[in-house]
Design goal:
Blueprint lengths: L1 E5 L3 E8 L3 E6 L10 H7 L3 E6 L16 H15 L4 E6 L1 H12 L4 E7 L10 H5 L2 H8 L4 H6 L8 H13 L3 H5 L5 E6 L10 H4 L4 E6 L6 H4 L1 H12 L14 H4 L4
Parallel strand pairs: 3-4, 3-5, 5-6, 6-7, 7-8
Antiparallel strand pairs: 1-2, 2-4
Helix pairs in contact: 1-11, 2-3
Length: 261
Amino acid sequence: MSAILLDGSSIVHYEVLGRGRPVVFLHGWVGSWKYWISSMQVAATSYRAYALDLWGFGDTAHNAANYTLEQQASLIDRFLIEMGIGKIALVGHGLGALVSMTFAAHFAHSVDRVMAIGCPLNYASVNARLRTSSSSDLADWLSNRTPEATAALTDASKSDVQAVAASLDGLRADNFFGGFRALNIPTLLVYGEREPAFILPTEAESNSTMIQQIVLEESGHFPMLDDAAKFNRLLTDFLALESGASPSELEMKEEWKRRVR
């Protein structure tokens, strides 16, 4: 286990694999860095892959004062400074995707590209169950409950429901996707066709020359677990794009071509 200390005593847990340009993986509302292991191993063949536990999750400190999206984004900035990391690719899921967009809004100079998985673009689309369920109930509801998914989400019980609520309060207070879109950061929005946590956005909601939206068939809230091979191929293709290139330049493979929005 690797960790840094912030504010003298607050532990921030992270893991790292590989060498090369930095890629930072941010987990969602259920679990921890652990469900990124497969994707990190794939990315680590060409990149330096980091995965953090955000405030209130996994083995990172629990402190309700740090649970806003702005504080979670500040955690990423402080981590990069502490580790001496420059411009990054961000791969965020659910909460991690909201944090990625918030981070980009404040620290755009540090972001090369964003892959946002399972990310609601407005508060009105969110299922009320996401706002009211316990950590264990969220894990049962959002995962496909296979042995592989259960193993990957073993830290679900460590999730602080206050951190989940604070992130959704931030989304409700500022449906900020319009501002993020104006940054023109190369962004790939990835959704599972069977997403239960919110209504998938329409093409009109996500439309931008620098934003591409893909829906993966047969996947739910955790496409990196539901179909790891397909998801990881998409991840590696996105990371391999030239810096500044639009994700629309991806050579769409037949398996997801029909679901491009």
